């Protein structure tokens, strides 16, 4: 009996079929030997394949979405999958079969379906029940495209809160010092006038 795990996000569903690796004393509910995966996008043909196809397809979606976020030219091409923007809201996906004489599958998806698909991939990556050996993102992809967005956001999220706190502290402190000095000057002037 194979194990089956599903990951859902709105109109997209990702299903992973496989077995645990008993030689590594894995739990019977885990999947580390993936035999098949299926990606179901509402109103689109079923996308399925073997484990060697899943990694490159996930990488393609991640790289393409990073290009979109960074406002770079959103286009990704490989032997297995091509993704490019038709316009700001429509994305063309061409899935090429590794079998001979099989026509490529052409899909058009909107931003919401793209986001839902990536969310399903994120759920798969974060799942403790599925162990997928990382194929790594293809070497012809520049390193900054692969990891630049995440690292920039992590650094930005790490450095900005203390920076804002220090700036706020300096601003409020200088305001109070100014007010204190002006009140003190008034008190001195009144004391001098009384004398």
Secondary structure: elements and pairs:
Elements: E1 3-9, E2 12-19, E3 33-41, E4 47-49, H1 51-69, E5 75-77, E6 81-85, E7 90-95, E8 105-110, H2 111-126, H3 143-194
Antiparallel strand pairs: 1-2, 2-3, 3-4, 5-6, 6-7, 7-8
Helix pairs in contact: 1-2
Describe what this molecule looks like in 3D.
There is one protein chain. This protein is an alpha+beta fold. It has one domain (3-141). The protein is 45% helix and 24% strand. It has three helices and eight strands. The chain has helices at residues 51-69, 111-126, 143-194; strands spanning 3-9, 12-19, 33-41, 47-49, 75-77, 81-85, 90-95, 105-110. The strands form two sheets. It has a four-stranded antiparallel sheet with strand order 1-2-3-4. A four-stranded antiparallel sheet has the order 5-6-7-8. Helix 1 crosses helix 2. The longest helix is centred in the C-terminal third of the chain and has 52 residues, at 143-194. It starts with a strand and ends with a helix. The model is unreliable at 136-151 (pLDDT under 50).
Outline of the structure:
45% of the residues lie in helices and 24% in strands. With 195 residues, it is α+β, with helices and mostly antiparallel strands. Helix 1 (51-69) crosses helix 2.
